[in-house]
Amino acid sequence: MFDGPVSRKPILQVRDLKMHFPIHTGLLRRRTGAVKAVDGVTFDVMEGETLGLVGESGCGKSTCGRAILRLYDITQGSIRLDGEEIGQTSQNALRKLRPSMQMVFQDPQASLNPRMTVQSIIQEPLDEHSTLSRAEKHEKVLQLMDAVGLNRRFAGRYPHAFSGGQRQRIGIARALALNPRFIVCDEPIAALDVSIQAQVVNLLEDLQEKFGLTYLFISHDLSMVRHIATRVAVMYLGRIVELGPREALFRNPLHPYTKALLSAVPEPDPSLEGTVERIILKGDVPTPANPPKGCNFCTRCPSVMDICKTDDPVSRKVAAGRQVACHLYDPSKLPAGMKPAVPEASEHQQGE
Fold first, then answer.
1. Looking at residues 65-71, what average pLDDT do you find?
2. How many CB atoms are located within 10 Å of the residue 73 CB?
3. Measured between alpha carbons, how far is 182 from 100 in angstroms, rounded to an integer?
4. Model pTM greater than 0.85?
């Protein structure tokens, strides 16, 4: 696990990112609403770290990752990669920036062209963005196969001849072809057998140390995020509700949703299983096409207050390196006589 000092220079800065998909109905296909898949997300990713992005299925994690890489034209917001604004940049202008940002997709079966050999798949980015000779490209592909643990002799084979874990290694090699600095890993182990998941995660860690990579690691597997991430952002219904250092967040979750999410993680020690307090949330996740007024979590929150149903909480710093979007931590929003859950962090507090 990468546990060394992380540069405090942000490689990625996301501000108020929104990704709304229009809803068209009727014979004339008029726009009657929008699915607010990502609705005002703000965070930084520091150079050399792994930021884990977690949340239940449908909360907007994958959409957020794809929007950051501009695989979608975003609705609103700012995305700065290495200080350069790419949020509203045209797709043609983005072409020269593509080598520095890449993606590892969730399903290795669907993300690899079945009609192309491994050699062609890994070489395709080099064909598009480099001026290397044919021999140099071939050698580069073989080096990448070595780096991800694939036998060079398999370069002429097609994806169907490989296992799920091997196909994901092909996808990782393709992502590394142009020497990127930032990689979005969109649930890279979700489609793999449990026995293979650890191998792929260990590979990602080794490659991060070898090539100085920065990851946005999207997953709903909290135990794996705890293993690989430096910091963790928790997402619910298109918004980030809590952000903080990995161990601090897992040891002492602040937001009611984070507490419920972590309480669902199985306890491997049978002797301790009975001591775990499960928080069972009532109701269903609201639709992102019509989120609740006020806090998105107010319809299921066990600590809901009247103000939660009318006012949208802002993300605020409550401890060193920790942010939470919840009225429980905002003294100005609490009823008279009620104290905030934790004191506000002073500016001289040191990070963990």
1. 95
2. 12
3. 6
4. yes
- Three-point CA angle 197, 199, 202, nearest 5°: 110
For 130-199, the DSSP string reads ----HHHHHHHHHHHHHHTT--GGGGGS-GGGS-HHHHHHHHHHHHHTT--SEEEEESTTTTS-HHHHHH
Close Cβ partners of 302 (under 8 Å, ≥ 6 residues apart): 256, 260, 279, 281
| Angstrom distance (rounded) from CA 53 to CA 62 | 9
Distance of alpha carbon 53 from alpha carbon 262, whole angstroms: 14
Q: Judge whether residue 351 has pLDDT over 80.
A: no
Rounded-to-integer distance, Cα 164 and Cα 167, Å: 5
What is residue 116's predicted lDDT score, i.e. its pLDDT? 96
Q: d(Cα 17, Cα 9) in Å, to the nearest integer?
A: 20
Any residues with CB less than 8 A from the CB of 266 and at least 6 apart, and which? 273
Compute CA 286 distance to the chain's CA centroid, rounded to the nearest angstrom: 21
Overall average pLDDT of the 106-127 stretch: 93
Encode pLDDT of 133-157 as tens digits. 999 999 999 999 999 999 999 999 9
What is the CA angle 236-71-37, rounded to 5?
Answer: 25
pLDDT for 196 equals 87
pLDDT value, residue 166 = 94
Q: What is the mean pLDDT of the chain?
A: 89
- Report the distance separating Cα 236 and Cα 39, nearest Å: 10
Euclidean distance between CA atoms 97 and 112, whole angstroms: 22
What is the C-alpha end-to-end distance of the chain, expressed in Å? 17
